[in-house]
Amino acid sequence: MNLARVAIMAAFSYWIAMAAMAQEAALEPPKAGPVQIFHVTDIRPGLTGIAWTVFQGTKPESVPVEIIGLWKNAWGPQQDIILAKLGGKAARTNVAGGMSGSPVYIGGKLVGAIALRLSVFSPDAICGITPIENMLQIDEIDRSRPSDPRSPLTPAAMNALPVPGELLASAAPRLALTNPTLIPIGTPLSFSGFHEGTLQQFQPYFDQMGVVPTLGGASGNSYSSKPVAGWDKSLQPGEAIAGVLVNGDLAITGLGTVSYNDGRRILGFGHSFFNLGPISMPMSGGEVIHVLSSAYQPNKFANATGIVGALRQDRHSGIMGVLGEAAEMIPVTLTVRSWAGGSPRDTKLRYNVFVHPKWTPYLMLLTMFNSLQDLNDGTSDEATYSMTGKIEFEGLDPLEVRDTITTVDSPMPAPLQLASRWADKFNRLYTLAEGAPKINRIESLIEVHPQRRIVTIESALLDSNEVAPGGEIRGRVLLRPWKGPAETREFRLTAPLSISKGEHHILIADSEVMNRAQFVAGMVNRHLTAPEAVNLIRQERTNSQFNITLMESRPSVYEDDRTMAALPSSVLNVLTSSRPAGPMVATAETARASQSFTLDAVVTGNISLHITVK
Q: What fold is seen in the domain 26-135?
């Protein structure tokens, strides 16, 4: 009898399980449109529901959900979190990155979105659900900006950080200090066309921003930020959604899940993307390739699909986008020309970049650095990188930028130095108080030569240490290259007729020395207009030049993008006393005559020669 009872019970359990599977298979994924709300006040332990998320492809699958309880004010005042346990496939994969936003229904009513997971090494698929009532509060009209957005460090700040290897090592102990509590599900940031070395180099910054970088792909190389055909039928609840930071030959997308679709407006994630507040970022769908099962860091691997709209809000409780709308991006064309074989070999990339004061400079840095990881010619140890760039604005003349970096004994690799200096130009434009100028397009060319090209100003000599106003100053400069014999360059300067008699000097210097006063003037003035900021960058000398300048012992004042040279002491006193200290830089000398020589190498060093005007 006991054996018969066991067999009956086993058969009964089998049929119950089969019936449950059949019922689950018969469920149809939710569709866009009006939906009833299951209110937080009705949450009780033991309630069961269904969540929807994509495990493979584009079609959402159902996931059984058991409500554990309501965690009051877990995320702040009146910010309750619903605790739940996931079953089905999610019990095996755990709460994976990319599940953020997966909608949860009880009795056909929308409860909220899966948004949090138990910290590392949890054997159970315990999640936190953001109530849909909180997500519906995300208002498109709200233009306030959060006080704690997650954004990258500025390129200039990167120079003050420890060596990248040390940063990576310092990040590891943080895992051991993490409390076993609910945290936002890591947003998988998928990088298409990027090298693993690039992600390793920037890993500390991804950690700081709370994103999980993965090497991914894109469904075709789209060079447009406009919505594709069929956008009006896209992003159904439970499907994958992605915010697009870069698209084209290179692509960076942040993956989550659609929580709500009223036919036009989309809600997703259930937590912030970067907590940027009002944004204008392209929004696309996604195709999931695989879900990595892990108690440590489960994650979805996915391709971004076509752009279908624009994200307009990135808030504490989720993201909000609008189908059919377009977000402005900056088209970039970047060509890398390698001379390793004696003849040029070009790699041309086309992509678009998300427009944002914090993110645009960082994305310029990231994409340029990555483009220089694609060299298979052994030039990394002994190489010189020469960059020419052209930035086209709306309503302003184009800005042409030149820069040269060579490999030296420095903790920061030469490609990262070049990319940082390039990105710093955009950082200066995007921190203007009145707002950045609109950039229409960018073109840049990087030439990579397989030699260390660096020249030092070693010595200099004047034919005569005396000159009359209007007379000619002649001399020679000895330049010492990294390898090979020294080279002598002759120069001639004409002393201005208006120069004062007395003791002066000839400054022979690299461009870093010559640019210093104007650079400082621009940095201390946060009220530059866009034309002034562009003009200030335009005036900077490139670091492949050495400059020979007759310096008169009379003060100059640098203000905005203007230079007031050779001021009498009375005028300087009036200027400094009539306005508060701040956006004005004064120096004790004035450049009266100058000559510049451009080399195909980085120039370093400076020398001062005494001269008397009779």
A: Thrombin, subunit H (2.40.10)
Give pairs for 428-431: CB < 8 Å, separation 24+.
428/522, 428/533, 428/537, 429/530, 429/533, 429/534, 429/537, 430/356, 430/357, 430/358, 430/360, 430/361, 431/357, 431/526
- Could you confirm whether domain 331-449 is CATH 3.30.1490? yes
Contacts of 77 (CB under 8 A, 6+ apart): none
CA distances from 550 to 294, 477, 536 (A): 68, 15, 22
d(CA 190, CA 100): 15
End-to-end CA distance of the chain, in Å? 125
DSSP, collapsed to helix, strand or coil, labels residue 234 as: coil
Residues sharing a CB contact under 8 Å with residue 450, sequence separation 6 or more, in sequence order = 339, 340, 377, 378, 379, 382, 383
Q: d(Cα 488, Cα 479) in Å, to the nearest integer? A: 6
Any idea where the domains of the chain sit in the sequence?
Answer: 26-135, 183-329, 331-449, 454-613
Rg (CA), the chain: 31
Q: How far is CA 396 from CA 233, 333, 436, 512, 535, in A?
A: 40, 20, 12, 26, 10
**How do residues 152-210 score in pLDDT, each as one tens digit?**
765 445 544 433 333 333 333 333 334 457 788 888 888 988 998 888 888 888 877 76
Quick one: pLDDT at residue 523?
Answer: 63
Residues counted in the chain: 614
E strand intervals along 37-186? 48-53, 61-71, 81-86, 103-106, 109-118, 126-131, 182-184
- Is residue 519 pLDDT above 80, yes or no? no
Q: Is the pLDDT of residue 562 over 60?
A: no
Give the β-pairing of 81-86 and 466-467. Answer: unpaired
Single-letter amino acid, residue 313: Q
Do the domains spanning 26-135 and 331-449 agree at the CATH topology level?
A: no
Residue 102's SS3 state is: coil
Distances 164 to 45, 108, 168, 320, 374 between C-alpha atoms, Å? 47, 50, 6, 35, 20
| pLDDT of 607 | 94
pTM: 0.83
Q: Which long-range contacts (CB under 8 A, 24 or more apart) does 159-163 make?
A: 159/412, 159/420, 163/411
70-97 pLDDT, tens digit per residue, is 988 776 677 889 999 999 999 999 999 8
Q: What is the CATH number of domain 183-329?
A: 2.40.10
Instruction: Give the pLDDT confidence score for residue 426 in this predicted structure.
Output: 95
